[in-house]
Each structure stands twice: as structure tokens, then as C-alpha cells.
TrEMBL record:
PANTHER family assigned to the protein according to its UniProt record, in alphabetical order: ANOCTAMIN, ANOCTAMIN-4
Entries under Pfam families matching the protein: Anoct_dimer, Anoctamin
Domain Anoctamin dimerisation: 2-94
UniProt organism field: Chionis minor (Black-faced sheathbill)
Residues annotated as transmembrane: 108-134, 184-203, 260-286, 306-327, 355-376, 475-497, 525-550, 636-657
Name of the protein this chain belongs to: Anoctamin
Membrane topology label: Multi-pass membrane protein
Coiled coil spans: 678-712
One GO MF term attached to the UniProt entry: intracellularly calcium-gated chloride channel activity
Length: 714
């Protein structure tokens, strides 16, 4: 007490701190004679108590307006100023959130608010890239050539039932592709890679300011207690704790290694399950494209590839959601199998597994579409096949980017909608059902007279894993926003719109639908999330380099403009330099060279009145009557070399920029550093003055008592 100036003991601690103190005491109270008969958690685990939670401060609603009568309690104030949908455009009252829910939850909402604010420039630039594609659509030479190519007949994209088609039939897809794959795409990819670094670096600064304001700078976590499960498993073998000097359970190194190996094997097996699911989707796509091509409805028959992609994405989303349920159980089993020593070790291990499972589950099909779809199909007359039966799926004549855009757009919208429903809709339905049962059992009048603890007991408890689900949802969204952003510039805008809703939805859930969680302190976002964010930032640079180089047509167009087009050797690359690009990017195939199982049912006579002799396909190969029929042309090798060179240059350039920004942005703002130094200086001055005053008092007392000493401190 002597370390603090306390004017009023009743108001010195806020309610969140009081609940933490009470919980600290209850965790250490001995309730029975015996070695391990200590703490509230054991009483909860053995069924002595059903639940234990801090109480909300009364109702969050009031008959009187907060403007005229003020807030009745902090919960009411939080509801009106933070959780109400009408205040979505206002800043969050983070200090009030911290006082009511504690620093850990306050930091989550501070991070979520900072992330949402940083999405504004990313969403604006992404929208600008999209609008740039819209405004330049009519001037795009490639789209014009595709739309005017009524005389170019493309080879069928599947066996038997797919017909020959005019290249001009894919005019709409060529225009849509230009909206996302245009001259501003490379700039946006570089911007987003830099943005991810700036976001993390400036969060460090923001976190430092919050930690200083909330008095967390010098706070260190206490020595964590051993998990009861670990204690029960290894209680027979003990060794001295080097910090406390007390004996504690000990896990042998060989036992720990064997458990980690089994756990890693389980993780590898589950990732193989994801890959198997993606393989199933691939088989669905190659089988269904032929089925849709023979469909009786003209709308589906004429758009068989888009219908295949759309249905495959929806099925993939259902598989993702089903596997997520399985992954949670597997991750829980494997983490418990490892027997982590403390709760933080358990949380970090569980977090890493769940992130790996869900990240691979969510992005594996996207990686397939971005980097494998249409890359290993062979060519007409020599198609590569799955199990020597199914012909691998080809890209649309306008390219593979449209498939990647559809995959990202549908998955992102569906997943965010589902998450928002599960976060708010599920607790609302459960609480409504509980209130309905209470009305039937006690009547409306009796229900209103329930004490606060019983009202709170009828609310939903917070997730068993704390803020884990909230962080996981946002980190996966961050990955979606950055990893393939070169193919879908509208991803930051969708993330921004979702997060504006997410902040108020989470606030509403915490204030009205959940029991009040136990307040706890923290200096930064929980566990290993920050390291995962940095890893995603590095991965995003690599994936965007490959998307631009491999998936989009940016490099082939650049090579054509500088090497093969009308402006070859002139150092120009405008739209006039792209004349003839479409014809140069298509190879010629002799229809009589089709394999028997690939030969289409129609002979193409509907185009010219006589059977087709030649059709075109996307590739850089020699014509059928050349010395080496269907061999790669020189242009193919030029494009391949340019792609590899672009990947290397892009990655090195962006990584250099990222590291430079990380170096130039200090973790502590200058004004905060000065404030901390000033505070340290004042404390030293106060300690010196207090010590001087004490010594002077002692000296006066000695003189008064007639005692004096030589060589006294003045």
C-alpha cells in the first residue's frame, strides 16, 4: 500500500481488476485437506460448481435516454457508445473496454480497429486498380482482338461433347479479366507487400503507446502454473524448479520427442487429407465440364466452364466448413497428446495446428487454380490425363485468372457471411431459446426479478479457447487479403466492409450475449499470432510474384510488346504495340490429329459450311507441318525466361523495400520515448529527494538527542 497514493479504497481498483484479484485468490484457496485440493478450477472440473464468472454491471438497456439521464452503469455506457450499430463510424472507447473487460480483450479490439483503419488505403488503391481496368477497357487492344476474332476457331476444351467455339465467344470473359489483370496490377502487388510490413511496424508503435497508457510497459507475466493434466501424468518423476527452488513434475526428453513426432505425423496426415479433398475437386471439375457441355439448357451448355468453376467453388466451401469441424477435434487431440507443461505452451501449440489446418484447408484449392490449373494439360492430340482416363482441365481461352477471381470472391464472401452468422446468430438463437424456456417455467414477472448472477448464468459462456476464434478469423482474412491480392484487387475492400461490421458485431456479442469474461492482462496480441502475421507477409510476396508471372498474361504481353510486336526493338510497350498479340499467343492444330477419345462429336461445319481442318489453342508451339510438329517455339522460351527473371527481381526488390521500411520505422515513437525518459528522470529525482529528506530528518534527530558522528553524509 505504501507504493500507491490511494484517496478512496472503494474506487482505486476498477471492476475488471477486482474480478482478477478475486479469481487469483480463489485459484489458490485450499478447500480440503490433501496435496492437490486447491483452487476453483479443480472444483469446476470435478462438478462441485457448474460455472464461475464475473458479473455484468446490471442491464445494458435503460428506459431513460443516455443523453438526458446519463449511463446507469459501464455496461449500459458500452452498449450505447460501442456495441450499438448506430455508432459504427465512431472510434472505439478503448479505455472503457479495458476497464470493463481487461487489457487482453482491450488489446484485441485495439488491434482489430488498427487493422481495419489500415485497410482503408489498401481498399482505396485496390478499388482504384479495378476502376482503372474499367476506364481502360475500351482501349485494351487484347480485349478488342478477342471480341473481333470471329474467324478464329478454338479447339474443344474437353473430350467428345465440348464443341468447337469462336474465340469471340469469350469476349465477356476477356473484358472481365482485364478488370483485374491490367497495367496497375504489378504496382498494387508491390504496394500490398509494402502495406503488410507498414501495418505490422506501425502496430508495434501503436501497441507501445497503448501499453504505456495502460501501464503495461514494465508488467511481466507471473511464473505460470503447471497444467493439472501435466502434473497428473508426470507426478512420479520430479526435479527442482531453478526459479522457485521447489520440486515439480518433469517430462523426459525422449518422451517429449516421441510425442512431438507422433503429433507432427498427425499434422502431415491431415494435410494429406486436405490435398486428397482438392484432388477430389479436380476430378469433379474434369468430369463435370463434359457433363455441362452436353447439358440440355443452352445457358449452362454455352457457359460450361464457368458453371463448372462456380459449382466446384461452392462444393469446395462446403468441404472446407466440414473439415474445419474435424480439424478442431484433431488439433485438440494432438495438442493434448503432446502434454504441454503450461497453459501458454498449450495455447501456442493448439494455435499453430489450427492455423496450419485451416490455412491449408482454405487456400489449397486456390493454390491449385493459381499455379496448376491449365499448366500441365499437354496439347491437342497428346493430352495428359488423370489415371490415364480423365483429361486435365484447361483454362478458358481468356486465361486462368478469371477462375482465380471467382474462387477468391466466392470463398471470401461465403466464409465471412458464415462466420458472422455463427458469431452472432448462434448465441442469439441459444439465448432466445433459454429465455423461452424460462418464460414457460417461471412466467414473465418472475423472470424479471432474477438476480444478476442468474441473468448472467443464462447467457452464453465465452469460447473455451478465449479470443482464439476471433484472432484466427482475422488472421485467415489477412492471408486472403494479401497472398493472392494481385489476382483479386477488391479483396481489401471486402475485408474492410466485413471488419466494420465485425467490430460492432463482436462488441454486441461481448456486451449483450456472452457472460462477462474474466479480465486478464497482456502486453501484445495473444501468443504466436504476430509471428504468423509476419510469415504471411513473407509468403504474400512470393505468391504474388508467381501470380503475376505465371497466372496472369502480364509477362507474355510484355515479351510480345518488346520482342515480337510492331514496336519490337523500339523500347515501347503501349496498346499500339499489342496489335496481333492474340494471334501470336495461339498455336495451330490439325483436327485430323485428334485422339479417338478426344475427337469431338461435331466436325465444325457450322462455322464455314465444311468440316474444319484446323483449330487454335493457347500455347507457343510449332504448326503441325513443321519439322518438329507441336514443338515449343522460341517465343515460349523467351516467355519462360522472362517469367523466371521477373520472379527473382520482384521478390528481391520487394524484400529489400520491406526490410528497409522495418529498419527505418522505430518500434517506439519519439514522443513516447521522451515521455518514458522524463518519467524515469522524475522517479529518480523523487527517490533522491525522499532519501535526502530522510537523512536530514535523521541528522536533526541526532543533533536533538546530542549525538553526532564524524564523516556524516551531509
Amino acid at each position: 500500500l505504501y507504493s500507491f497514493i490511494i484517496h478512496n479504497k472503494d474506487t482505486f481498483f476498477n471492476n475488471a481488476t477486482r474480478s482478477r484479484i478475486v479469481h487469483h485468490i480463489l485459484q489458490r484457496v485450499k478447500y480440503e485437506e490433501g496435496k492437490n485440493k486447491i483452487g476453483l478450477n479443480r472444483l469446476l472440473s470435478n462438478g462441485s460448481y457448474e460455472a464461475a464468472f464475473p458479473l455484468h454491471e446490471g442491464s445494458y438497456r435503460s428506459k431513460n435516454s443516455i443523453r438526458t439521464h446519463g449511463a446507469e452503469n459501464h455496461r449500459h455506457l458500452l452498449y450505447e457508445c460501442w456495441a450499438s450499430w448506430g455508432v459504427w463510424y465512431k472510434y472505439q472507447p478503448l479505455d472503457l473496454v479495458r476497464r470493463y473487460f481487461g487489457e487482453k480483450i482491450g488489446l484485441y479490439f485495439a488491434w482489430l480497429g488498427w487493422y481495419t483503419g489500415m485497410l482503408f488505403p489498401a481498399a482505396f488503391i485496390g478499388l482504384f486498380v479495378f476502376l482503372y481496368g474499367v476506364t481502360t477497357l475500351n482501349h485494351c487492344q487484347v480485349s478488342k482482338e478477342v471480341c473481333q476474332a470471329t474467324d478464329i476457331i478454338m479447339c474443344p476444351i474437353c473430350d467428345k461433347y465440348c464443341p468447337f467455339m469462336r474465340l469471340s465467344d469469350s469476349c465477356v470473359y476477356a473484358k472481365v479479366t482485364h478488370l483485374f489483370d491490367n497495367g496497375a496490377t504489378v504496382f498494387f502487388a508491390v504496394f500490398m507487400a509494402v502495406w503488410a510490413t507498414v501495418f505490422l511496424e506501425f502496430w508495434k508503435r501503436r501497441r507501445a503507446v497503448i501499453a504505456y497508457d495502460w501501464d503495461l510497459i514494465d508488467w511481466e507475466e507471473e511464473e505460470e502454473e503447471i497444467r493439472p493434466q501435466f502434473e497428473a501424468k508426470y507426478s512420479k518423476k520430479e526435479r527442482m524448479n531453478p526459479i522457485s527452488g521447489k520440486p515439480e513434475p518433469y517430462q523426459a526428453f525422449a518422451d517429449k520427442c516421441s510425442r512431438l513426432i507422433v503429433s507432427a505425423s498427425g499434422i502431415f496426415f491431415m494435410i494429406c487429407v486436405v490435398i486428397a479433398a482438392v484432388f477430389g475437386i479436380v476430378i469433379y471439375r474434369v468430369v463435370t465440364v463434359s457433363t455441362f457441355a452436353a447439358f440440355k439448357w443452352a445457358l449452362i451448355r454455352n457457359n460450361s466452364q464457368v458453371a463448372t468453376t462456380g459449382t466446384a467453388v461452392c462444393i469446395n466451401f462446403c468441404i472446407i466448413m466440414l473439415l474445419n469441424v474435424l480439424y478442431e477435434k484433431v488439433a485438440l487431440f494432438l495438442t493434448n497428446l503432446e502434454q504441454p507443461r503450461t497453459e501458454s505452451e498449450w495455447e501456442n501449440s493448439f494455435t499453430l495446428k489450427m492455423f496450419l489446418f485451416q490455412f491449408v484447408n482454405l487456400n489449397s484449392s486456390t493454390f491449385y487454380i493459381a499455379f496448376f490449373l491449365g499448366r500441365f494439360t499437354g496439347h491437342p492430340g497428346a493430352y495428359l490425363r488423370l489415371i490415364n482416363r480423365w483429361r486435365l482441365e484447361e483454362c478458358h481461352p481468356s486465361g486462368c485468372l478469371i477462375d482465380l477471381c471467382m474462387q477468391m470472391g466466392i470463398i471470401m464472401v461465403l466464409k465471412q457471411t458464415w462466420n458472422n452468422f455463427m458469431e452472432l446468430g448462434y448465441p442469439l438463437i441459444q439465448n432466445w431459446w433459454t429465455r423461452r424456456k424460462l418464460r414457460q417455467e417461471y412466467g414473465t414477472q418472475r423472470k424479471t426479478s432474477f438476480p444478476q448472477w442468474e441473468k448472467d448464468y443464462n447467457l452464453q459462456p465465452m469460447n473455451a479457447y478465449g479470443l482464439f476464434d476471433e484472432y484466427l478469423e482475422m488472421i485467415l482474412q489477412f492471408g486472403f487479403t494479401t497472398i493472392f491480392v494481385a489476382a483479386f484487387p477488391l479483396a481489401p475492400l471486402l475485408a474492410l466492409l466485413n471488419n466494420i461490421i465485425e467490430i460492432r458485431l463482436d462488441a454486441y456479442k461481448f456486451v449483450t450475449q456472452w457472460r462477462r469474461p474474466l479480465a486478464s492482462r497482456a502486453k501484445d496480441i495473444a501468443g504466436i499470432w504476430y509471428g504468423i502475421l509476419e510469415g504471411i507477409g513473407i509468403l504474400s510476396v512470393i505468391t504474388n510474384a508467381f501470380v503475376i508471372a505465371v497466372t496472369s498474361d502480364f509477362i507474355p504481353r510484355l515479351v510480345y510488346a518488346y520482342k515480337y510486336g510492331p514496336c519490337a526493338g523500339q523500347g515501347e510497350a503501349g496498346q499500339k504495340c499489342m496489335v496481333g498479340y492474340v494471334n501470336a499467343s495461339l498455336s495451330v492444330f490439325l483436327v485430323s490429329d485428334f485422339e479417338n477419345r478426344s475427337e469431338p462429336t461435331s466436325n465444325g461445319s457450322e462455322f464455314s459450311g465444311s468440316p474444319l481442318k484446323y483449330c487454335r489453342y493457347r500455347d507457343y508451339r510449332d504448326p503441325p507441318h513443321s519439322p518438329v510438329p507441336y514443338g515449343y517455339t522460341l517465343q515460349f522460351w523467351h516467355v519462360l525466361a522472362a517469367r523466371l527473371a521477373f520472379i527473382i527481381v520482384f521478390e528481391h526488390l520487394v524484400f529489400c523495400i520491406k526490410h528497409l521500411i522495418s529498419y527505418l520505422i522505430p518500434d517506439l515513437p519519439k514522443d513516447l520515448r521522451d515521455r518514458m525518459r522524463r518519467e524515469k528522470y522524475l522517479i529518480q529525482e523523487m527517490m533522491y529527494e525522499a532519501e535526502l529528506e530522510r537523512l536530514q530528518k535523521e541528522r536533526k534527530e541526532r543533533k536533538k538527542n546530542g549525538k553526532s558522528y564524524h564523516n556524516e553524509w551531509p
